[in-house]
C-alpha cells in the first residue's frame, strides 16, 4: 500500500500530522485541543480509534496541547526521547505506564513494514527531533521548528520522496512586525524557526530529482503568507541555480485551519 499522509494542522496555533500505511497509522504531535483533533481527523475520515500511536517532536504547547487528553481517551502510546519526556510529563497529566515509550534521538522503531527514524534538529526545546518514515523504497521526511539546516539535518532530509519542511516566516515581515525584539531575535536565531529563504536554500542543496513534492509547513500567521512562502522558497532555489518544472518538483501548501488532502508518497 505504501505511505500516505495528511497534515491536519500546521502553524503556531497547533500542529498535528497523520502518517499511515496499510498496517499502521501514526500521529506526529497533538498540538490542538482533543476536540479539535477529533474534528480534523473526521475531515479525513478518521477517528482517534484509528491511531496506533503519537510521535512527539518537542514539548512546546503548539505540539502537545492535546497530547495527554488524546492519549488517555484512545489509550494510545506516546513516543518521545528521554529529555522530551522529562519536559512534557508534568504538563500532559497521567499517562499509563504501558503508553510511555522512549524513542531516543537517532534511533528507529519498526511498525510492521513502516520504519520510523528520529533525527536531531536545532530548536529551543529540550531535545527536539524530526522524523523520517520508510516503507520499502519510499521515504517521507517531516522537519519543522528548526533554526537552521545543519549538515546532519541535511543528510536526514536527503533522498526523501516527499518533504514536510518548515517555512515559518518572511524575514522582512518579521523584522517589521509587532513582536518585541527579543522574540524576533529568538525566531531568527539558530534555535528558532526556518525562514522562507532558508528553506529554499536548503532545498537547493538537497534536491537530486528524487524529491517530487515539498509541503511548506509551520507558516507564521503574522509574518508569512501561503503565496509569499511558495514564491520566496522557489525564488531562493532559483537564485542558487536550482530550477525545476512543476512536473518535476512541486511546492505544496499546509494550513492552520484545515487538513491537507491525503497524499501518497509514491504518487507521480
UniProtKB/TrEMBL annotation:
SMART domains according to UniProt: Lactamase_B
InterPro entries documented for this protein: Metallo-B-lactamas, RibonucZ/Hydroxyglut_hydro, WalJ/YycJ-like
One family name in Pfam for this protein: Lactamase_B_2
Domain named Metallo-beta-lactamase: residues: 13-191
SUPFAM superfamilies (alphabetical): Metallo-hydrolase/oxidoreductase
Catalytic activity: 3',5'-cyclic CMP + H2O = CMP + H(+); 3',5'-cyclic UMP + H2O = UMP + H(+)
Superkingdom, natural source: Bacteria
PANTHER family: EXODEOXYRIBONUCLEASE WALJ (PTHR47619:SF1), METALLO-HYDROLASE YYCJ-RELATED (PTHR47619)
Purpose of the protein: Counteracts the endogenous Pycsar antiviral defense system. Phosphodiesterase that enables metal-dependent hydrolysis of host cyclic nucleotide Pycsar defense signals such as cCMP and cUMP.
Protein name: Phosphoribosyl 1,2-cyclic phosphodiesterase
Amino acid at each position: 500500500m505504501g505511505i500516505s499522509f495528511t497534515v491536519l494542522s500546521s502553524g503556531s496555533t497547533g500542529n498535528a500530522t497523520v502518517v499511515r500505511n496499510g498496517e499502521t497509522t501514526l500521529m506526529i504531535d497533538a498540538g490542538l485541543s482533543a476536540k479539535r483533533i477529533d474534528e480534523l481527523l473526521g475531515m479525513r475520515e478518521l477517528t482517534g480509534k484509528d491511531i496506533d500511536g503519537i510521535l512527539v517532536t518537542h514539548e512546546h504547547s503548539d505540539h502537545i496541547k492535546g497530547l495527554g487528553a488524546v492519549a488517555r481517551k484512545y489509550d494510545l502510546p506516546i513516543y518521545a526521547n528521554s529529555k522530551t519526556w522529562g519536559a512534557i510529563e508534568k504538563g500532559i497529566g497521567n499517562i499509563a505506564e504501558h503508553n510511555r515509550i522512549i524513542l531516543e534521538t537517532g534511533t528507529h522503531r519498526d511498525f510492521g513494514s513502516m520504519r520510523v527514524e528520529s533525527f536531531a534538529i536545532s530548536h529551543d526545546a529540550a531535545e527536539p527531533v524530526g522524523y523520517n518514515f520508510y516503507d520499502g523504497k519510499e521515504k517521507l521526511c517531516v522537519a519543522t521548528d528548526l533554526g537552521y539546516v545543519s549538515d546532519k539535518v541535511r543528510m536526514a532530509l536527503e533522498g526523501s520522496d516527499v518533504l514536510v519542511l518548515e517555512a515559518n516566516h518572511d524575514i522582512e515581515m518579521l523584522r517589521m512586525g509587532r513582536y518585541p525584539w527579543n522574540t524576533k531575535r529568538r525566531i531568527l536565531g539558530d534555535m528558532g524557526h526556518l525562514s522562507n529563504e532558508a528553506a529554499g536554500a536548503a532545498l537547493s542543496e538537497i534536491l537530486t530529482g528524487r524529491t517530487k513534492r515539498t509541503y511548506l509547513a509551520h507558516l507564521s500567521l503574522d509574518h508569512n503568507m501561503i503565496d509569499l512562502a511558495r514564491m520566496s522558497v522557489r525564488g531562493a532555489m532559483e537564485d542558487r541555480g536550482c530550477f525545476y518544472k512543476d512536473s518535476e518538483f512541486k511546492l505544496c501548501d499546509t494550513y492552520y485551519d484545515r487538513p491537507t488532502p491525503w497524499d501518497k508518497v509514491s504518487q507521480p
